[in-house]
Amino acid sequence: MPVLNIVVLNPLADRHLAALQAVDPDITITVADESSALEKMSTCHILVTWGWLETRPLYQAAPHLEWIHALSAGVERLIFPEIQAADILLTNSKGIHGIPVAEHVLALMLAFNRGLPVSIRQQEVKQWQRMPTSELHDQTIAIVGLGSIGREIAKKAKALSMKVLASKQEITTELFVDKLYPADNDSLLEMLGQADFVVIALPLTEHTHNLIGLPHFAAMKPSAYFFNIARGNIVNEADLIAALQQQLIQGAGLDVFTTEPLPADNPLWDMPNVIITPHMASLSPAYLDRAVKLFADNLTRFVQGRDMINLVDKIKGY
User: Fold this and answer.
1) Residue 311 lies in a domain
2) 150 and which of 66, 73, 76, 146 could share a cystine (Cβ 3.0–4.6 Å)?
3) Which pLDDT belongs to residue 183?
4) Interior CA angle at 177 toward 175 and 179, to 5°?
5) What is the pLDDT of residue 1?
6) Total tally of structural domains belonging to the chain
């Protein structure tokens, strides 16, 4: 095999470079940013990037490209007709996000249950007033999409004695799920109607775009909370805003949006029953260490001609 040239569109620490170089001392690793990457692509064999970065110009400038790896789980900007028709491998970093995202979801649930959004606002005006609170114990969480992130959420929710419902394409035996639903719309509506908390944990594909709309919010309890830690475009944002305004649901914790950054004139900003975080649910000091470890494992498999992990179906989009 000729010397492999790897272009990485993210800064790497010395320990990360050392881990990759240990796979094969002869590989060449070039760290670039979006503006400088194009000039590096003529000799690139492997591109390491993020799923939301525009990749088509880089692909068109890379005649020797064999493999694209996403440091993210989502690969929505890495799939286009030319890639789908080519033999180029596409992998992602699925499996490394579960711990921080699950903790983020728990933080949102606990914040609403213990009245923290109201308490924080009262603190700002020095107001001493108790508000109703609740417990997660014995409440029901519905997880829409039971991949690696959904399973970690289920595991942590079950540890808090919650009832766990989930939906996924294939019905399997799941250790931390009390009831698993198929992914059809009727089953989804049935599941949503039982939940105190609903979490979207799906990949964004052509089939999940605008999957959640007003009928789904109408099926939920008026006391339920809705969380999206996946991708903004899975949810019809106008319908979500309407559901909150019409009090079809109690509140929402939102980490992702149709447009990011969230525009200043978006009504979600001013809703007291909404917690907004800036697409940070998966952030962790350990993120890049986990991502590089996964990529180094796959790089070893690639060099040795072995089966690779986290191969993305370029037609399905995940």
Assistant:
1) no
2) 146
3) 95
4) 130
5) 56
6) 2
115: alpha, beta or left, given left = phi > 0 and alpha = psi -120 to 50?
Answer: left
Q: Kindly name the residue from 16, 69, 231, 237 that is annotated as catalytic.
A: 231
Distance CA 246, CA 31 (A): 49
231 annotated active-site: yes
* 18 shares its domain with 64: yes
The residue type of 72 is S
The answer to whether residue 152 is catalytic is: no
Q: Which of 77, 279, 290, 301 is catalytic?
A: 279
Is 103 an active-site residue? no
- Same structural domain, 253 and 110: yes
pLDDT at 292 (0 to 100) = 98
Q: What is the pTM of this model?
A: 0.93
Q: Do 294 and 272 share a structural domain?
A: no
Say what angle helices 116-124 and 98-113 make with each other, to 10 degrees.
70
Reduced to 3 states (helix: H, G, I; strand: E, B; else coil), residue 169 is: coil
Q: Indicate whether 137 and 185 sit together in one domain.
A: yes
For 157-200, the pLDDT digits (tens) are 999 999 999 999 999 999 999 999 999 999 999 999 999 999 99
Low-confidence ranges of the chain (pLDDT < 50): none
